[in-house]
Design brief:
- The complex is a heterotrimer of chains A (about 400), B (about 220) and C (about 280).
- Chain A folds into 4 domains: about 5-45; about 55-145, Immunoglobulin-like (Sandwich); about 155-185 and about 370-410, no CATH class; about 190-355, 3-Layer(aba) Sandwich (Rossmann fold).
- Helix content of chain A is about 45%, strand content about 20%.
- Chain A is built from 12 helices and 14 strands.
- In chain A, helix 5 (about 250-270) links the parallel strand 10 and strand 11.
- In chain A, helix 2 runs antiparallel to helix 11.
- The longest helix of chain A is centred in the C-terminal third of the chain and has 30 residues, at about 365-395.
- With about 220 residues, chain B is mostly helical.
- Helices cover about 75% and strands about 0% of the residues of chain B.
- Classes of the chains: A alpha/beta (about 400), B mainly alpha (about 220), C alpha/beta (about 280).
- At the A-B interface, helix 2, helix 4, helix 5, helix 6 and helix 7 of A face helix 2, helix 4 and helix 7 of B.
Chain lengths: ~400, ~220, ~280
């Protein structure tokens, strides 16, 4: 809340300036205005310089330690009207009245500074001073402190996230155990996954290989892990039908996992000798060179079926259009929202977002897998309820609502 | 044991990383940083495996004279050449007149930019082939697409600049981007976020095991 | 029937004709510049106004994450923002988190700095590249020296005049991140979300649709989207003949022709009896 005196000052300054401006504008055409040595400067109406007030220093909350937050009330003239404060200088000392050294300079308009210097020692007392830097003056506050940096064991602002995480995990475990006890879990049909077997059959009939592109993500990405699930299913069928599968990889870790998945699939189908390590290979970790290589493979090998599963970026349309030119049936799945329209335009089937994650549950039909899909549905219900509550709170804009909103956001 | 040990490692490390997010203490942060440093180190060594795979693949093609084997020679020569000049020059990256930078600016950069430029042609052919107003909703989608496309380029302002504010293509495009587009994206993000949480939970609990290789 | 055959032929046209038309309509306007007016949008103006309001000597962070592929869209906006900063007497701090773009960014920065007679170390610095952007952004919130003890050229940060007393995001007036990757999310989550640094983004046109939500929520104060956004910024800084503006004619005409193709395709589809699938 601005000090009433400052509000009056700024409004008075604005009024005076407006009167002068209007009177000059309407008294004479600007070209006929006489030369004058008086140049009106807005800063003339600014309040006199002064140091920052009410400086405080305390342990930085929710940090690993060695952090102190220094806050202050902005110095006179540091507001949206005048901008007379160029910046602030922060000083620190281990003593209340001497030994202050400059630790940082920050721009004007700031009212706090987080000191996370690694030289700070947890448990030790520190004192701070803040200086307001004007064009021709530097004014120091009185020392603030002591502040003692300490590490925290729990991040209080994330308590809502923890609660939601436990709620979600708990409901997932509950639904998994319910599914294991024989409770039927309905999952709607997903056309792209239903088409997998048909697409593999097509390739076998035509005597052409299958191309599986596991995307440009690392092995730690959920979309890539979902791609492994689909690859396992495809590789198993491919091994049974004795069709060739080609898997070009962007990431070496993904390549090693894909090699294991395909190899195990051939072994499980009783045809370990059918696995060709050279068909599951690393290309490059560069986006467009990888795309060029895969395009070349498509145009040379003319696969009957292309699978694009995982993380894709700008190359999605280049890959899928080239696959169309090569005459392949194409099934894509990605959680990159921006690329989904390109796949929808160029591919026969597209798994969008969480449909890709659901692929493993859908293909295996295992109770524990289906239980987590149900948990996602419940999670969405909770999200919708929170949105309705949030919208109502925002609409009515009460102080209690603002506090609730800040609590949920962790602020 | 072959499958149980990785599952235990995944459970312990996954659960730790999940709860580490809520514990800002410096010991927790140090363990997190340590784990991430190991991720970087392991990632670098897997690159060696990847390059081995690439070299083996192309060597195989050359030795067996497979289809278009000569391109494999180009690949291996290029790989070797750029590696050698990069390692040989101590200031390879910082010397703009060096051979390494010439290869970057006059080979890699134009080729990469060309591949990206293909998108313009492919979107035209994909649009011509696939953007059909088969249903009412598809027609609505096409109309929105046309408005946003024209609203985001100067010609839209040129064509509709005479209309009152709020009815010009640029204003309608902004409305579409600010409201329906944002609302739909937020909804999908929530779904994707829950999907990521569910899949991560399945991996930590060992329900999802395809990453081990060979399905179940 | 001859007419049905015509529509069928139109639907099955060799796609190389489409490529040829797109090639011509993109190339010809580049030769003859008409200069259709570019309307400035509020999200781009917000970035301009923020930079314009900063007092001389303030530090603006302009991380540039693009590679040769996305340089066509992002390089013009990056240069426009840096030019604006230099013309206002602001200092610029840059990083590059895309490994393929490290030297591109360095070249651009050097060229623009030379235009304004700016001195390295005093008016601008280039921190260079570090992997694992997420960790780097988190560490920069504590101290820039933690992930970057030295700059791109090997100078210690403490030896650079511009970095005296500059430790973390608190010392930066604002961040205008030029980004071609999903790394933009890390800037939102960490630089703004965790450390409260004022953040604007410059992204490709395709990515821009994703970030309107963050603009609405106030997590970013401005958004420059694609080549049009770059053209708007160039117009605002008084350089309406720079590369983005000159390219807008080609972009406009290409958009019109793509819409034309969609219309023709639909006419052929419906007139030809809904055609046959591939």
């Amino acid at each position: 809340m601005r000090h009433p005196k400052k509000v009056i000052q700024s409004r008075l300054a604005f009024f005076i300036y407006s009167v002068i401006a209007f009177s000059r504008a309407f008294s004479q055409p600007s070209s006929e205005l006489p030369e004058t040595n008086f140049i009106f400067r807005y800063e003339m109406l600014a309040p006199p310089p002064g140091p920052p007030a009410t400086v405080s220093a305390m342990d930085l909350p929710n940090d690993p330690g060695k952090g102190i937050i220094v806050s202050w009330q902005k110095a006179p003239g540091d507001n949206d009207v005048f901008h007379t404060v160029v910046g602030y200088a922060i000083y620190r000392s281990q003593f209340a009245d001497s030994g202050f050294t400059l630790i940082s300079r920050i721009p004007g308009g700031s009212s706090s500074y987080s000191d996370s210097d690694t030289s700070l020692v947890n448990g030790r007392k520190y004192y701070f001073k803040v200086a307001a830097l004007y064009k021709n003056d530097t004014l120091y506050s009185s020392p603030a402190g002591p502040a003692v940096p300490e590490p925290q064991l729990f991040h209080k602002q994330r308590i809502v996230v923890l609660a939601l995480m436990l709620l979600f995990s708990g409901s997932a475990l509950f639904l998994i155990s319910r599914a294991r006890r024989g409770k039927n879990v309905y999952v709607r049909p997903i056309a792209g996954i239903d088409a997998v077997d048909e697409a593999i059959g097509r390739a076998t009939e035509m005597g052409r290989p299958i191309l599986f592109v596991p995307g440009l993500g690392e092995a730690s990405r959920v979309a890539t892990i979902a791609a492994f699930t689909v690859l396992a299913r495809v590789a198993r069928k491919v091994a049974e039908y004795q069709t060739r599968i080609i898997v070009p990889n962007y990431d070496p870790v993904v390549m090693t996992i894909c090699q294991e998945v395909v190899k195990e699939a051939y072994a499980a189908a009783g045809r370990p000798e059918g696995f060709n390590e050279r068909d599951v290979y690393f290309v490059t970790q560069d986006q467009f060179p990888y795309t060029a290589s895969v395009n070349g493979t498509m145009l040379r090998e003319r696969p009957a079926t292309n699978f694009y599963m995982g993380k894709f970026y700008a190359e999605s349309l280049i890959l899928s259009e080239t696959g169309f030119v090569a005459g392949s049936i194409q099934i894509a799945g990605t959680d990159e929202l921006v690329q989904i329209p390109f796949f929808v335009a160029a591919c026969d089937y597209t798994l969008m977002g969480e449909e890709l994650y659901a692929a493993s549950a859908y293909l295996s039909q295992e109770p524990q897998q289906l239980g987590t899909i149900k948990a996602q549905d419940w999670g969405k219900v909770v999200a919708i309820l929170l949105m309705i509550v949030g919208a109502v709170v925002y609409f009515f804009s009460t102080p209690a609502g603002d506090s609730f909103s800040a609590f949920v956001q962790g602020g | 044991m072959k499958r149980e040990v990785p599952l235990v490692i995944v459970f312990v490390s996954g659960a730790f990383m999940a709860f580490q997010y809520f514990v800002p203490h410096y010991i927790s942060a140090a363990v997190y940083q340590y784990a991430l440093n190991w991720t970087i180190i392991v990632g670098i060594f897997t690159l060696v495996v990847g390059i081995g795979s690439l070299v083996g693949l192309h060597y195989d093609r050359i030795s067996r004279r497979k289809e278009q084997w000569r391109y494999s020679i180009v690949t291996l020569v290029a790989l070797t050449f750029v590696t050698v000049i990069g390692l040989y020059s101590p200031d390879a990256i910082q010397n703009p007149r060096g051979l390494f930078m010439h290869v970057y600016f006059y080979v890699l950069a134009p080729v990469t930019a060309t591949m990206f430029a293909l998108l313009a042609f492919f979107i035209a052919s994909a649009a011509y082939r696939a953007f059909r107003a088969r249903t009412v909703l598809a027609s609505l989608l096409l109309l929105s697409a046309v408005i946003v496309m024209l609203g985001r380029v100067p010609i839209g302002e040129y064509l509709t600049g005479w209309l009152p504010e709020g009815l010009r293509f640029s204003d309608i495009a902004k409305f579409i981007l600010d409201y329906p587009n944002t609302a739909a994206k937020r909804a999908i993000y929530i779904g994707v976020g829950l999907g990521v949480a569910a899949t991560s939970l399945k991996i930590i609990l060992g329900v999802e095991r395809t990453w081990l290789g060979g399905g179940q | 029937m001859a007419q049905a055959s015509f529509w069928q032929k139109l639907m099955d046209i060799d796609r190389r004709w489409i490529y040829l038309v797109i090639g011509i309509v993109t190339f010809v306007p580049m030769l003859h510049y008409v200069g259709m007016p570019v309307q400035v949008t509020s999200e781009v103006k917000a970035v301009y106004d923020r930079v314009e309001s900063l007092p001389p000597g303030s530090i603006v962070m302009v991380p540039m994450e693009f590679d040769p592929a996305t340089a066509a869209e992002l390089e013009p906006m990056a240069k426009a923002v840096v030019r604006h900063c230099f013309s206002r007497g602001l200092k610029v701090m840059t990083t590059a988190f895309m490994i393929d773009g490290v030297v591109l960014v360095e070249r651009d920065l050097r060229e623009v700095a030379a235009e304004y007679g700016k001195e390295y170390g005093k008016d601008y610095i280039y921190l260079g590249y570090k992997p694992y952007m997420e960790i780097v952004l988190l560490n920069m919130g504590e101290n820039f020296r933690k992930p970057f003890p030295r700059d791109y050229y090997g100078n210690r940060l403490d030896d650079l005049p511009m970095m005296q007393g500059v430790n973390n995001y608190s010392n930066i007036s604002c961040i205008v991140g030029i980004n071609a990757t999903s790394g933009a999310d890390y800037w939102i989550n960490y630089a703004n979300g965790r450390y409260g640094a004022p953040l604007a983004l410059g992204v490709t046109a395709v990515m821009a649709t994703d970030y309107y939500a963050f603009l609405q929520s106030g997590q970013i104060f401005g958004l420059i989207g694609g080549l049009k956004g770059a053209a708007e910024y160039e117009k605002l800084i008084g350089r309406p003949k720079d590369v983005a503006n000159r390219s807008m004619d080609a972009v406009s005409v290409a958009h019109v022709f793509i819409i034309l193709f969609i219309v023709i395709g639909n006419i052929a589809f419906f007139a030809g009896g809904r055609g046959k699938r591939r």
